Amino acid sequence: MNPQPQPDQEPLSKERLRLWLRILKLSSSVQAELRRRLRDNHDTTLPRFDVMAALSRYPDGLKMSELSDYLKVSNGNITGIIDRLAEEGLALRVAVPGDRRAMIARLTPKGTKAFADLAQHHEEWIDDRLGNLTREDAKTLTRLLNKALDDRNT
Amino acid sequence: MNPQPQPDQEPLSKERLRLWLRILKLSSSVQAELRRRLRDNHDTTLPRFDVMAALSRYPDGLKMSELSDYLKVSNGNITGIIDRLAEEGLALRVAVPGDRRAMIARLTPKGTKAFADLAQHHEEWIDDRLGNLTREDAKTLTRLLNKALDDRNT
DNA sequence: ATTTAAAATTTCAAGCTTGAAATAAAAATG
DNA sequence: CATTTTTATTTCAAGCTTGAAATTTTAAAT
To answer: Given strand B62-63, what is the order of strands in its sheet?
Structure first.
């Protein structure tokens, strides 16, 4: 009934720091694998994949500024990525009727098809990479990571 | 005693994909904050911080190639970062006796002092950023993330 | 000893990323 | 209606990152 008195505990800040280093290590490791696979197997990059993923959720396209908000990157960044996707015929810019400042970016049919292929491989890679985790592990992690994200930006 | 039969479960791959997106979101969010703080408060960058952190663990310095192995980045990358740290008087290159190809990078006294300051602020920021998590939360997360990292590269 | 292979680092081009400055157009203000 | 402010995007310079090519030096093989 009486809890054992705990001897000297490590400061909580150290425990949280250790956690952050784990998150960083896993995240970096998975991202590095994804980049390599996207490059070697699909001749593309992670930023391009992210932009295509965003556009694939919005078949009518997104304004350049909506896209940079959505992906939390700078406007200038999106400009360059859409430039390169457009060069490859995967995305294009459409004028916005009634506002000559704005541009809408959207996937071309070729881009839509290419992304469907990427997305399927992506889900398979992630499933393989996180294969050590059971359903319960994954649920617990997702719940606790959401807790860490709570009451913060987005 | 008899487990309830579970109705249609979502595929485990979807659960793992959701988890990956959470990890990525938290990692990106924390890194963005760190970069902003390093820039605004200390006029430095996260890559420079990472290199200084590595060198601070090895007071006698590390060979350029050991440094890039340790940080899992390319050789050319380290060359550039050490160049810039050296320009600011925070690091320097030392010749390796007996091997005229190799160079050892190490912190200057100024670099050591600067890093001690950065490291303290860093731990405080992380503690604040992950403040929603209890000790038990942090331990559980660390354990499960280690499981996800197991049997993989380093 | 020469030649060949391996190792350590730097250089380079291309792409990503940012924040700040520049453009251009729309909206608000007086 | 003219002026000012705000909004949307692009351009730009600087730094980060990579993989490949180039240099230089060491080690191995013949």
So the answer is: B62-63, B99-107, B91-96
